[in-house]
Amino acid sequence: MSNKIMAYRRPDGKIGIRNDVAIISAMDNTNPSANRIASLVKGTIPITTPFGRGQIGHDLKSTQDALAGLGNHPNVAAVLLLSLTLETAEPIRKSLEASGKPVVTMGLQETGGTLDLTISGAKAAAKMVLETSELMREPCDMGDLVIGVECGGSDATSGLASNPATGKFSDKLIDAGGTIIISEPAEFMGAEHLLSARAVHKEDGDRIVEMVKYFEDIAIDNGVDMRGTNPTLDNIAGGLTTLEEKSLGAIAKGGTRPIQGIVEYGIHPENHQGLVVMNTPSAACESMTGLAAGGCHIIIFSTGAGNSIGATPICPTIKITGNPRTMMNMGENIDVNVSTIITENETIESAGERLWNHVEKIANGKKTSAEVLGEDQLSVSRWGLSV
After folding, report:
1. C-alpha dihedral sign at 10, 14, 19, 22
2. Distance between first and last Cα of the chain
3. For the whole model, what pTM was predicted?
4. Per residue in 40-61, is it b (16+ CB within 10 Å) or e — as a string?
């Protein structure tokens, strides 16, 4: 166990732990072409969204920011950007080229139809894979990493074992100079005052409270009282009894260090190091897509009752559980088993050290279960209706 890893150095100075070429579809109508090209060229990853047309205002900007963030991700070596026209790809292209990595943009209409786009895109993608495969890993610090922390399928073991162990990891990474991003502010409800008090800047503390209230108000406007429906039925079946109990367990995964800043959905925390809060919905796939778009090299996903899904393929997702039954029934989906905290009196500190060791291995190239099984999903959040 050490503070050193072997990673790829990008033109902008950031490090990457994976080295794939991303094929980004800026619009739903070029998704088939992106998937088709990725199936033809090994070493490529399709990044698609079911939207992209008819979006306006904050909703449009958020989608463009998220797609650009995924393309700018440090685990991505180069990008093939597709869209209906070159003009509609322009906002994302400008952001991608700022990273200094190779970017090729193609429009379906300008290229000449599906077959021409597929052939031209496959040729461009193959060339980028060959060129970027020459990059070699070099020594880097664990403290260069940005790690997202997520939880889902929570039960009583989440707050007793997997989340506290993740919190120990979070504190250690921050102390080593790294960044931890915790998301899902609706999951802070009942404990938001504790996080607010840890914010370095008062305006960030106030923003945490505002984010929680925003999601609560949205739910109320749609006839749902989050304080009356949380914990959910599966949470209750897993032993959680109150909203506060669930929230205290959820925030434990972020550790104990001060909160250095707030970022919006899918935005890289460029000016923050340490503990950062990202404003995302609570749905795991949407939240993890935001974390990936925000530049997280890895996501640590704590689950009690069990959850198989990982983030987009560019962002390895480590599944950790403190539930021995989940480990027995869903072992193929779990990377780190800390149920030993409950069954064998392992200390939370020891479990956190084992998680550190596993993250180090993933950063050096080891695959996660979600990567091997193809359990990944891209779900860019929507903030409004298409027009």
Report:
1. negative
2. 53
3. 0.93
4. ebebbbbbbbeebeebeeebbe
Q: Please, what is the angle between helix 31-40 and helix 114-132, to 10°?
A: 50
- Pairwise CA distance, residues 169 & 336, whole Å: 13
72 exposure class (CB count in 10 Å sphere: 0-12, 13-18, 19+): buried
The pLDDT, as a whole number, for residue 240 is 47
Residues of the chain with pLDDT under 50: 240
Asked if 351 contacts 157 with a C-beta cutoff of 8 angstroms, the reply is no
Confidence at residue 229, expressed as pLDDT on a 0 to 100 scale: 56
Task: Report yes or no: 318 and 177 within 8 Å, Cβ to Cβ.
Answer: no
Radius of gyration from C-alpha coordinates of the chain: 20
- Which two structure tokens, joined as six digits, stand for 286? 């949407």
pLDDT at 220: 82
Q: Tokens standing for 228?
A: 């009356």
Neighbour order of strands in the sheet with 20-25: 44-47, 20-25, 76-83, 103-107
Residue 377 DSSP SS3 = coil
* Pairing relationship of beta strands 4-9 and 15-16 according to DSSP bridges: antiparallel
Looking at the chain, the number of H-run helices and the number of E-run strands are 17, 14
∠147-43-300 over CA atoms, to 5°? 20
CA distances from 126 to 110, 131, 138, 374 (A): 21, 9, 24, 22
Q: Which residues contact 21 (CB under 8 A, 6 or more apart)?
A: 41, 43, 44, 45, 76, 77, 78, 79, 80, 125, 128, 129, 132
Residue type, 158: S
Query: Which single residue is written with the structure tokens 């060339």?
Result: 127
Distance CA 290, CA 278 (A): 8
